[in-house]
Design a protein that fits this description.
heterodimer; A: alpha/beta; Purple Acid Phosphatase, chain A, domain 2; seven-stranded mixed β-sheet; six-stranded mixed β-sheet; 7 helices; 13 strands; B: 0% strand
């Protein structure tokens, strides 16, 4: 099977330029390892620049530890410098704390939009034409931000409400229009797994009803996991990437995923390889059997 | 303070007048409520919900002084009429004016549909059960849908069952958020430790989520009760224990966390200090809050 498109899927790098404060050290804010980040950068760069299938890098959120503007900025430069111009990223819940969780806790709606203005374009959609296959990457913001006016409906929600996400996704898919030349693959890139959004069951069902969607790339949990959600014959695959830079006792090794998409007789197959940090470098640790998506 | 429709409209109009720029959604709500002849309309109910977020003083006196009350003692939102209310239609009517207001009304209905939602202790006990059931359900779902072992087979979900644990959990979370919004100090102190413990048993960013919940709850209670509520929150962060489990003899922190005693102490102290300092600091300077910065109103 010849891969037509490879997606290097990295997540939760939690990088920071600045030294952690006394408080950050002691409340256990997780922080990516600089040496692992270096090895990750080298591996990602070699993957996206090698000859062979077209390769794109996608980073599914949590670029920083506590969302300090400088940390997000330098991680963006780091990521785009190594994964190339075609690479994309979304922000995660850690990136919306503006470096000051205590102050931001009360003004998180306002801060959320300020961070988005500064670091993440709204409604970014990336379309890749690979042979006769079209792959569209929809970026969704899954971090809770309540209403734009800060009128809280549920302070306990961990992931965002899914309804606004569904609406924006539906509008984006509609705007894309039909593709008549071959397989049309819809990829959603967001930070929270669908099942960890507020009222995740509804979210799972909503996404299943969107027939243009095949693959959901997420992070957040720091544990790699592949799921197939949905009812009937179709459904969609959710690939959760573990943290790509965080090391520690009782934590999984840093890892990332490489998803190979190939068109075969009008259908699309997905084969995922799990890359793991072995102490000095990243290497392929396991390749799942190909599945139709 | 209980308000009638005329007072509510006057308060809202004054708020709108003071705002710069004016919120078009609030303006449409006011105009919608003014146009309606009946008092207990969905628009008036949504307007009350909106204004209540901005002004905790709208909490009925009995609720503010004695905590949440059963319906026969008076509703929290005097404009929310469950007898005449068609939930879907009501929310749809408000949604035509403003989606944020519709979300507030939908949340109010969702919360008050939880049976005996005002009985804080009972709701907390049921919440803990539903939380545990929901965690188990979702964990089972993740394992059953896991690839590659299930490749080729699709998980069929019974998603139309509104009594599934995760769906119920959302109802309880909205109800508890509503109880925190009441801002009754004793109720807040009862709820807060349970929520913080619950957060600690779920996935990452626990501390940040704990801070968010604690800040939200503490800012809603009256200024004179904030220090006590902050202390309750800090205690829950430092010494988390499941709801309903009696206090045990103190045990060494290092034993529980696998950290050295010094690290464990620093961890506990800093978390407690963070919650306390943050809460008290904000309590001391309420005038810094602006209406467009969040849901809090500057105290006159």
């Amino acid at each position: 099977m010849t891969a037509e498109l490879e997606i290097v899927h990295v997540s939760d790098v939690h990088l920071a330029d600045t030294e952690p404060t006394w408080l950050q050290k002691h409340i256990g804010v997780q922080r990516g390892s600089a040496s692992v980040a270096e090895a990750l950068a080298a591996t990602v760069k070699s993957l996206v620049s090698r000859t062979g299938p077209q390769t794109v890098g996608l980073l599914s959120g949590d670029l920083s530890t506590l969302g300090a503007a400088g940390d997000i900025g330098s991680t963006r430069i780091w990521w785009e410098g190594h994964a190339g111009d075609s690479s994309r990223y979304v922000l995660g819940n850690h990136d919306f704390w503006n470096g000051h969780p205590l102050q931001t806790a009360i003004k998180h709606t306002q801060v959320h939009w300020e961070v988005r203005d500064a670091h993440w374009p709204l409604d970014r959609i990336t379309t890749l034409s690979v042979g006769d296959m079209r792959v569209t990457v929809y970026e969704l913001d899954s971090t809770p931000r309540d209403q734009i006016t800060g009128l809280v409906t549920n302070v306990l929600a961990q992931g965002g409400r899914f309804e606004p996400l569904t609406i924006s996704l539906r509008e984006a898919v509609y705007a894309q229009g039909a593709w008549g030349h071959g397989p049309d693959v819809g990829v959603v890139l967001m930070h929270h797994p669908v099942d960890r959004l507020r009222n995740g069951l509804v979210a799972i069902a909503e996404l299943d009803q969107n027939t243009s969607l095949n693959l959901v790339l997420v992070g957040h949990t720091h544990r790699a996991l592949m799921n197939r959600f949905g009812s009937g014959e179709r459904g969609y695959v959710q690939a959760t990437c573990g943290s790509s830079t965080i090391r520690g006792r009782k934590k999984p090794n840093p890892s990332f995923l490489v998803h190979a998409l190939s068109a075969l007789e009008g259908t699309v197959r997905l084969q995922t390889t799990f890359w793991e940090f072995d102490g000095t470098t990243f290497a392929p640790a396991r390749t799942d059997p190909p599945i139709q998506i | 303070m209980e308000v009638d429709q005329r007072e509510l409209l006057a308060l809202a109009a004054r708020r709108l007048w003071d705002e710069s720029p004016q919120d078009p959604g609030l303006r449409r709500l006011i105009e919608g409520a003014q146009a309606s002849e009946s008092r207990r309309t969905p628009i008036a109910a949504a307007l009350w919900e909106w204004m209540w977020r901005l002004d905790p003083g709208l909490t009925p006196q009995r609720w503010a002084e004695d905590g949440p009350q059963p319906p026969e003692q008076g509703a929290l939102n005097p404009f929310l009429n469950f007898e005449d209310l068609s939930e879907t239609e009501s929310v749809a009517v408000v949604a035509e004016l403003d989606s944020s207001a519709a979300a507030l009304l939908a949340a109010a209905v969702q919360a008050e549909r939880v049976s005996d939602w005002w009985a804080t202790g009972d709701v907390l006990r049921r919440y803990m059960t539903v939380h545990a059931d929901s965690e188990r359900f979702m964990s089972d779902l993740r394992s059953r849908t896991r690839l590659p072992s299930t490749s080729g087979r699709h998980q069929t979900l019974v998603l139309d069952d509104k009594f599934l644990p995760p769906t119920l959990l959302d109802d309880y979370q909205v109800a508890l958020t509503r109880l925190l919004l009441v801002g009754h100090p004793a109720t807040t102190r009862q709820i807060l430790p349970v929520l913080l413990v619950t957060q600690a048993t779920t996935d990452d960013t626990t501390f940040l989520d704990q801070v968010r919940i604690a800040r939200f709850a503490i800012r809603r209670v009256q200024t004179r009760s904030r220090a006590t509520s902050a202390r309750t929150a800090a205690r829950a962060v430092v010494r988390p224990r499941p709801y309903g489990v009696p206090r045990r003899e103190p045990q060494r922190v290092a034993h529980r966390t696998q950290r050295t005693p010094v690290e464990a102490f620093a961890n506990r102290f800093s978390a407690a200090a963070a919650v306390l300092i943050g809460a008290v600091a904000r309590a001391e300077s309420p005038h810094e809050d602006k209406i467009d910065d969040g849901q809090w109103q500057a105290q006159p």
